[in-house]
Amino acid sequence: MDCLFCKILDKEIPAEVIYEDDQAIAFRDINPQAPFHALVIPRRHIHSLNELQPDDRETVGHLVMVASKLAEEHGFAEQGYRTLFNCNSHGGQTVYHIHLHVLGGKPMGWPPYTDVLKTPV
User: Fold this and answer.
1) Nearest one of 60, 62, 67 to 22, comparing CA atoms
2) Which candidate in 47, 97, 99, 101 is catalytic?
């Protein structure tokens, strides 16, 4: 398998890891869209959200709990933050290993994609 995030997990590719446990790791995004932008990924490879099985409920819930912990630890939980999963090409997924984006440290626009596109769709 040629998965970028699996290579990060295997330490074949360096990443700025900011959280790690037996189920997940979190690392800073190399192309941040906010002052704080991290990716939370499960240690087990899951290609996309469409591949989730009932047994993955705990895994996905754990990713969300890690996001909440990161927001608290990095001081923006109270002001608010954004979490986001992308799914497949039309959803903006570029690495096919599920990952939860955690963005904080600035007010976020609505709809979410205006931050990137600069014009509403």
Assistant:
1) 62
2) 99
Where in 1-121 does DSSP place strands (E)?
A: 17-20, 24-28, 36-42, 81-85, 100-104
pTM of the model: 0.89
76 neighbors 36 (Cβ within 8 angstroms): yes
- Kindly report the CATH number assigned to the domain that includes residue 78: 3.30.428.10
pLDDT digits (tens, 9 = 90+) for 112-121: 555 555 544 4
Task: Note if 74 is an active site residue.
Answer: no
Domain count, the chain: 1
| pLDDT 10s digits, 71-109 | 999 999 999 999 999 999 999 999 999 999 999 999 987
Residues 87, 49 contacting (CB under 8 angstroms): yes
Domain of residue 51, residue span: 4-117
* Helical ranges in the chain per DSSP H: 4-9, 57-73, 114-117
